[in-house]
Amino acid sequence: MAKVKVAILGSGNIGTDLMYKILKNDGNMELALVAGIDPKSEGLARAKEKGIATSHYGIDEILEDSEIKIVFDATSAKAHQVNAPKLKEHGKFAVDMTPAAVGPFVVPTVNLNEHLEEMNVNLISCGGQATTPLVYAVNRVVPVHYAEVIATAASVSIGPGTRQNVDEFVRTTASAVQKIGGAKIARAIPVFNPAQPPINMTNSVYAVIKEEFDERAVIQSVESIAKEISKYVPGYRLKGSPIVDYRDTPWGRLPTVVIMNEVVGAGDFFPTYAGNLDIMTASAYQVGDVYAAHVLSVKEGAR
Amino acid sequence: MKIPRLTDTTLRDGDHAISHSYTPEQVRTIVKDLDEAGVPVIEVSHGSGLNGSTIQQGFSKHPELELIKVAVQTAKNAKIASLFVPGIGTSEELRKAADLGISIIRIAVHCTEADVTEQYFRLAKELGLEAVGFLMMSHTQPAKVLVEQAKLMESYGADCVYVVDSAGALVPTGVRERVSALKEALSIEVGFHAHNNLGLAIGNTLAAIECGADQIDGTLRGLGAGAGNAQTEVLVAVLNKMNIDTGINLAILMDAAEEKVAPIMKSPIVVDRDNLSSGYAGVYNSFLLHVKHAAEKFGVGVGEIMEELGKRQTIAGQEDWIIDVAVELANKKGVKV
């Protein structure tokens, strides 16, 4: 079966977990190169061990290989700002896993198909991947006036990048809850819990509804999207059925759909509690795989 | 003995206890009295800090920035402080509060997560604010860990770091260990914030002062989250008896507590079963009203929810887990949710 060549840029933990996912699944992608900047990094050593070509010259070798069509950028927001135009110039589809958000936000179950002609898509944040589809699932049944998402992860799974810029997580995730989820007003709040043993990632969504609605239809819509997500994030599940609680809000006492979700990681490289990291690499995999299928079908059509 | 600086947080911690319903008029009245009494610092903001008006924490009835503005305009001598919790508040709200004229920002995180505060301490100092670190739920960690975390805050520019007994779960020996360790390790000031779940808010505050605490907190009538705090007017009376002269006028405080604050309260704050079980389980005090709501909705007991929240090692900001716990307990009992 024909496959599309891909590269991972960034040999840190995220890049490494993604590498194992690509190697594990027999999809539409062939991992051609893992590129980092530190020749001694554990990620590059692990790639070599798996027989994957590596480079420690950053983006350069990726750009030189015209066969590579998809690049997963697992570096940093700052680095991606620099990488993005280069990748575009060389005709490579960039899956941006950093908070740089150069391209549009994508969530595989919501809007990936709309963006297959883009050259750069962004994966929002862990909380964004987990919660925006839930808000979307409510909003496609009845308009969500206000959505608030609480993303809770184990302290040990939160890296220094996020810790030094909590503002960025809040802004990006809330913006995606509006753009992808469809909520008119949105808030996003992260919680880092240091419990031992570490907790699994859990998310809560509050969706405030201003009009009468069919509770059953909302619950079905949410349950069905959760099932869709669990196809590419196997540890994604709802904690019980969504419930409707009445809350005092600035818009009066209103029904609020409360959705609780848990994400257990696949344990490819990260420990299973780090569902917040797993959902990023699993979503990146899914975006890459769907895009690769698209590339292959376009080629097929051209023949 | 050193005279500690007293911060009255009736208008911040007390906000939890009255479901975030402070009016500009109430703020004006209480700030006026505290200021006249000579209380040096008055904290005003949503109970969960700037921008805390959310479903998770409870929506404010009146925009907090309006309340802060009134407080700043009313206080002649007292400095106005606000609480800030990274993730609930962002730089934007911090800037807005600074623009309104607050003098002090108290940056609060769970006591193991100090490294998320760097961006905000730096900004606070840039904005010319006094910046105080708040290590919440300090009972969960030994002194050694608190010292490491406090040192991070010091390195980011904190002027003071507080041992915060958010759950009211510390006893005086625990307070002494923690405050002494911070005093020894830091070159900046050290503070202590009490809750009264074990009936120890005043006692623990005295223990902190004995160990050299430079800053302490109180609320009029104890109006704070859950079991409330060290009662400001009682604290001043006790310190007077101990010949620690804060220079604060006790008579004005007593009148303010009796005539201005008591009428706002839904009921007196006492160490009842709910508050004791909360403190005993080591649960964050501002969960109380949310736990009561969930207990009623799902037909389970407040005490059993508290116990489970304690077991799960929940921290500030995890009000959503209350629902999760209540639903699970209800399911176990066969109550249909």
Structure overview:
The complex is a heterodimer of chains A (303) and B (337). Chain A has 303 residues and is an alpha/beta fold. Chain A folds into two domains: 4-123 and 281-302, 3-Layer(aba) Sandwich (Rossmann fold), CATH 3.40.50; 126-272, Dihydrodipicolinate Reductase, domain 2, CATH 3.30.360.10. Helix content of chain A is 39%, strand content 26%. Chain A has helices at residues 13-24, 42-49, 60-64, 77-89, 126-139, 160-164, 166-179, 215-232, 275-302; strands at residues 4-9, 29-35, 54-55, 68-73, 93-96, 120-122, 144-154, 185-193, 201-209, 236-238, 243-249, 252-263. In chain A, the strands form two sheets. In chain A, strands 3-2-1-4-5-6 form a six-stranded parallel beta sheet, sandwiched between helices. The radius of gyration of chain A is 19 Å and the shape is globular. The model of chain A has no long low-confidence stretch (mean pLDDT 96). Chain B folds into two domains: 5-264, Aldolase class I (TIM Barrel, Alpha-Beta Barrel), CATH 3.20.20.70; 273-333, Helicase, Ruva Protein, domain 3, CATH 1.10.8. Chain B has 14 helices and eight strands. In chain B, helix 7 (172-185) packs parallel to helix 8 (201-210), helix 9 (232-241) runs antiparallel to helix 10 and helix 11 packs parallel to helix 13. Chain B is globular. At the A-B interface, strand 7, helix 6, helix 7, strand 8 and strand 9 of A face helix 14 of B. Chain B: Belongs to the 4-hydroxy-2-oxovalerate aldolase family. Chain B: Residues 4-254 form the Pyruvate carboxyltransferase domain. Chain B: Mn(2+) binds at residues 13, 193, 195. Chain B: It catalyses: (S)-4-hydroxy-2-oxohexanoate = propanal + pyruvate; (S)-4-hydroxy-2-oxopentanoate = acetaldehyde + pyruvate.
